[in-house]
Amino acid sequence: MRAPQDARATPPRAIGLWGGLSANVLNMIGIGPFVTIPLALSALAGPSVFLGWIAGAVLCLCDGMVWAELGSTIPESGGPYHYLREAYGRERFGRLFGFLYLWQTLLTAPLSIGSAAVGFAQYAGYLVPSLDGTGRGLVAAGLCLFNTAVLYRKVGDIQKLSLAISVVVAIACVWIVGSGMAHFDRATAMHFMQTRHDGGHGFWLGLGAVALIAVYDYGGYNNVCMLGGEVKNPRRTIPMAVLLSIPLVATLYLGLNVAILGVLPWEQAAHSKFVVADFMQAIHGGMGGTLAVLLILLASWGSALVVLLGYSRVPYAAAEQGQFFRPFARLHPRDGFPTVSLLFVGVTSAMACFLSLESLIATLMVVQILFQYIAQCFAVVILRRRKADASVFRMPLYPLPIAVSLVGWLYLVATSGWLSIAVGVGAVVVGTLVFLWQARSTRSWPFPNA
């Protein structure tokens, strides 16, 4: 794992504000809410469920300020890998944190991309009822491999494609929410508002479960940070793309919840496999349900596409710094995109598609919180003291957003269940041991012969 040559080419900065915003929004408006609304209603039914969605949005907005400041300060592809290395010392604890981020990415990237693809396959079952579990796995894996082929080109072409899909998806979401509002039934909504069923959870555990689902659904507002080295005018573009995408999508998701619960009885919504399709079928008949599914498939395909685009830059960024296997730093000789890194993430994502979607969400979020999100909150404080560049974005109300983020992340971990916590902690321990083994083999920090 030798460091690459200094003369190595770098990807061009070709992503503007609209491209960055579409990369975030398309990631956020993926399959998430279309499959997790029933899970949220099962965890905390009644009007309290909206508190979970709002709490998730507030947490994401505060965390988005953390990402915006870090992305503006260090606008490099592979974002968090550089943030943690720089904040905690490139030759000291930053080596450990950078490695742990890379370690968790090798675990979570396939799960994140695979979850979008599995959701795609689940809704495909509405159109092909005979599609069984194995068939859905094959469809999801095929989608990952297809997206890998689509992304095997220069990023400027992908920016145009993602922007076009984002426009179509936004129009579709407005149509779905608008249809619900136009056919809103007050009696159905009042039945939901008078419900006090907590889904078997205590209130605080249920609130944590819904907030965790909401954060998963809102996830993607940081996607532009993964592409920092390919963003034009990054110190302005990255913060704007992050902070505009969160309230935009949060408003859309809350509207989607209100619309569905004003048309479908909440008991039906809580047990539906295709809740949005059932909702649109109730309004527009069979053709409405089919059209809604086609639009959801487009959204989930686009989400899987841009998540793969963002995560494929992380192994490349580490290898380009000499911290990962050298072939991952290889760029396409003509178009300047990471080739080996893209192929690796795409293939491992296809392999992850044979896991259950529901079983991935809590573990995926806990691993990311323990490995990355908490460490990034402290990284902002460290870098603020060290860098005083006036052109860098500074979050308002500092340090309140950081405090809210820390409390929120710890609360979500505490209410996620012991199995998810055990997997997350175990992954941290194993990653640390692998780092120490590698450091001892290479005679680098923290061993005396460094």
UniProtKB/TrEMBL annotation:
Lineage summary: Bacteria, Pseudomonadati, Pseudomonadota, Gammaproteobacteria, Lysobacterales
Annotated keywords: Membrane, Transmembrane, Transmembrane helix
Domain of life: Bacteria
Name the record gives this protein: APC family permease
Membrane topology according to the record: Multi-pass membrane protein
Subcellular location, record wording: Membrane
Protein's organism: Luteibacter sahnii
Transmembrane segments: 21-44, 50-68, 100-121, 133-152, 161-182, 202-219, 240-266, 286-311, 336-357, 363-383, 395-412, 418-437
